[in-house]
Structure formats: structure tokens, C-alpha cells
Amino acid sequence: MAPHQFIRFRLDLGYVQYLAVYQGIAKTVVTTADDGRRIEFPVANIHRYLDISGIHGYFEMELTEQNKFVGIRRLA
Questions:
Q1: Interatomic CA distance for residues 50 and 15, integer angstroms
Q2: Residue 4: enclosing H or E segment and its boundaries?
Q3: How far is residue 36's CA from residue 8's CA, in Å, rounded to a whole number?
Q4: Given 13, 30, 62, 72, which residue has the most CB atoms within 10 angstroms?
């Protein structure tokens, strides 16, 4: 069994940008990982990190060997 993979990335989404989610305009987040890969995932995966200023920080996404989503955690 191959180990899970971890993808690190930074997000700086202002509250107004994140508001598009609640208006039904945005359903996914698209960003560039530290290794240069373009990653896209459902915005619901980061709801818990939303505060009054939006979502800001350095994150790590965990995927299975079949690229199935396991979770996201804030690193800093």
C-alpha cells in the first residue's frame, strides 16, 4: 500500500471573495500548490477556517494513493 500524499498550499481569500460561495457563484477553490501543481477542490472542505476576514493561511491537503480526499488542515 502506497503512502498518502500531502499537498501544501497558501490561501488568501478575502471575505468578499468567499461570499461568492454563499451566493452560489463559487463551488470550488482553485490554487497553486507549493510544487507548482494546480489544485481544485470543493469549497466546503475549508468552511471551518472561515472567519470575519475570509480564509487565510498555509494548508496541507491529504489524499489517498487513488487521489481521494482525506482532509485539509491549517499549518500556519
A1: 8
A2: none
A3: 10
A4: 13
